[in-house]
Amino acid sequence: MAAPKRKTDPIPGAIDSAVANVFSGVRTVKTPEIELPKKLKLNTRLKMDGLDFLSEIPKDSISVAFFDPQYRGILDKMKYGNEGKSRGRERCELPQMTEDTIKEFAKGIDRILIPSGHLFLWIDKFHLCQGFSNWLAGTNMDVVDMITWNKKKMGMGYRTRRCAEYLIVLQTLPRKAKGVWKIHNIRDVWDEPITKKNGHAHRKPVDLQSKLISAVSNEGDVIVDPAAGSFSVMEAASNSRRNFLGCDING
Fold it and tell me: pTM for this structure?
């Protein structure tokens, strides 16, 4: 299924030399028109394996992807002992990804991103402190920024109580902001109350994701999420007048 047609550069990632500075509000990077298999329907909650899903998307065709890997992270590290009972029940019921699986997702996303494309990667405090660079081995992506999401709700913790999650901003070569990132008032600490629409344990901030999508893509672009969970990225893409392409193993 083809995405809606629009004007594109013949070379994905081409930059207009007329852009004056890093704070320009003009985005000159364009994504190519893409042809998708019939089973990959836009703006639909697809139920399928995320790695199989990524393998069906053409190489160098997507400007923006989101990835929220499902791991126990800090729960395993702190070993509270009552996960799945009185604590973290919803989280524990979700299928868990191994480290090797997360690496395969990173490689799959790297393959489909255009030059100067972005991956927004959600991580918790444990992985932020311990490091996640091994997830990126063999990819063309590197960290260019980070946003702290203040969920405005107190969580777990033996000492300090967790109130935040972290969104790592990754970009493929060539790494640049000029002509690529067109909104310059996004704060690196973002306050947005957590919601549990449809009862999902990993609902992410729709307003933040909408703002980021608008910053690094053009209207009509396809936004990818291969582990969509509550499909908050689909809602954010719709709010931003973009197309969504994503799946979740639970649909």
Answer: 0.84
